[in-house]
Amino acid sequence: MALAEQVYEHLWTRSSTTCSLLKLTQLDSAQPDVSHAGGITDVIKIASMVDAYDIALAPHSPLGPISLAASLHIDAVAPNAIVQGQLLYRPEAPNYLQDSSYFEYDSEGYIEFQDAPGLGISPFLMKLKKQKLVTRG
C-alpha cells in the first residue's frame, strides 16, 4: 500500500503509528520537523528508523534560523540525510540572530558546518523574550 512518496513533517514521531506506517508504505523520503517531532534526539532516532527501511531523510525546517540550526546538526550525523529544506530569507522576517553568517552557503548550495558550542548560533535573547518565544534564560 503506497500512500505517498513523502510523509510530511507533522506525521513523524517515534510512535507505534510511525513504525506501522513504515512497514505499510513505500516512501522515498521522510521530512520530520525538529520543532514538532520531539527535538534533535527524537529526529535522530527517526532518521535511524527510516534508514533501516532505506528511506532518505530530508528534514523540514520552516520555522526560522533556530530550528534550521538544529536541523543542520541532525544532517551532520544522519547518514541518510540528502537535503535540508529551509525558507529563503526575507528582509521583513524577524531576525533573532546576532550573526547570520552561519547560514551562508557556497555556490553549490552547501553550508559549512560550524564548530561553535551548542547549535552554533547566538540569538538575541531579549528579542525572543519580547516576542514571548523564550520564557527563561
Description:
It is a single chain. This protein has four helices and three strands, in the order E-H-E-H-E-H-H. It is mostly helical and 137 residues long. It has one domain (6-130): Enolase-like C-terminal domain (TIM Barrel, Alpha-Beta Barrel), CATH 3.20.20. Helix 2 links the parallel strand 2 (29-30) and strand 3 (56-57).
Q: What is the rounded Rg?
A: 16 Å
Number of strands: 3
CATH superfamily annotation: Enolase-like C-terminal domain
Helix-residue proportion: 25-40%
Number of domains: 1
Helix count, DSSP H or I runs of 4 or more residues: 4
Question: Under the CATH scheme, which architecture would be assigned?
Answer: Alpha-Beta Barrel
Strand content: under 5%
- Kindly name the structural category: mainly alpha
Give descriptors for this structure.
137 residues; 4 helices; disordered N terminus; 4% strand; mainly alpha; three-stranded parallel sheet; TIM Barrel
